[in-house]
């Protein structure tokens, strides 16, 4: 009988340890760490129409992060910096930091992105994304307007 008690106690102990870690993780992971702000911008003003958090839609936050990570840099773009089609920003409320602020112009090849790199929109880096990625970003905003 004593030979069976030790393995049984180890299994029960491991299960309790796992359960305790799971409960602790669930209770401390309800804080938003990333937000995506999507909207439009006209005349230099931004109208954020949707905020997507990593708690409500982790997949959308991950997908947008990957889109931005794999965009293609370009030297310049023929766009009106104060009148974009879309506005997209990555925010970290936990660290109180705006990580990326960008404006997008849709075209037949996808979209041109201007990411603000300085204090004002006079300092930007341009890049492009393909049509599929531009449509995905548009769909995130469209889904909000239908709710």
Q: In words, what does this structure look like?
A:
This protein has 147 residues and is α+β, with helices and mostly antiparallel strands. The chain has 2 domains: 1-30; 35-146. Helices cover 37% and strands 35% of the residues. The protein has 3 helices and 7 strands, in the order αββαβββββα. The protein has a 7-stranded antiparallel β-sheet with strand order 2-1-4-5-6-7-3, with helices on one face. The mean pLDDT is 87.
Quick summary of this structure?
The chain contains three helices and seven strands. It has 147 residues and is α+β, with helices and mostly antiparallel strands. The protein folds into two domains: 30 residues; 112 residues.
Question: What portion of residues is helical?
Answer: 25-40%
Strand order of the largest sheet: 2-1-4-5-6-7-3
Helix count? Answer: 3
Tell me the fraction of residues in β-strands, as a range: 25-35%
Give the termini distance in whole angstroms. Answer: 62 Å
Mean pLDDT: 87
Shape: elongated
- Low-pLDDT runs of 5+ residues are none
Give a short account of the largest sheet: 7 strands, antiparallel
Radius of gyration: 22 Å
Give the topology string: H per helix, E per strand. HEEHEEEEEH
**Helical/strand content category:** alpha+beta
As for the number of domains, it is 2
The total beta strand count reads 7
Produce the secondary structure layout.
Elements: H1 2-28, E1 35-42, E2 45-53, H2 58-69, E3 72-74, E4 86-92, E5 97-107, E6 110-116, E7 124-129, H3 131-146
Antiparallel strand pairs: 1-2, 1-4, 3-7, 4-5, 5-6, 6-7
């Amino acid at each position: 009988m004593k030979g069976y008690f030790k393995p049984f106690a180890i299994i029960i102990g491991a299960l309790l340890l796992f359960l305790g870690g799971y409960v602790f993780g669930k209770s401390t992971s309800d804080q938003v760490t990333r937000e995506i702000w999507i909207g439009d911008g006209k005349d230099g003003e931004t109208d954020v129409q949707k905020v997507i958090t990593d708690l409500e839609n982790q997949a959308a936050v991950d997908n947008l992060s990957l889109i931005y990570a794999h965009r293609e840099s370009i030297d310049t773009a023929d766009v009106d910096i104060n009148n974009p089609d879309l506005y997209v920003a990555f925010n970290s409320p936990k660290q109180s930091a705006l990580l990326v602020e960008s404006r997008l112009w849709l075209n037949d090849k996808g979209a041109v992105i201007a990411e603000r790199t300085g204090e004002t929109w006079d300092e930007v880096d341009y890049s492009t994304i393909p049509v599929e990625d531009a449509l995905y970003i548009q769909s995130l905003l469209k889904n909000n307007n239908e709710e």
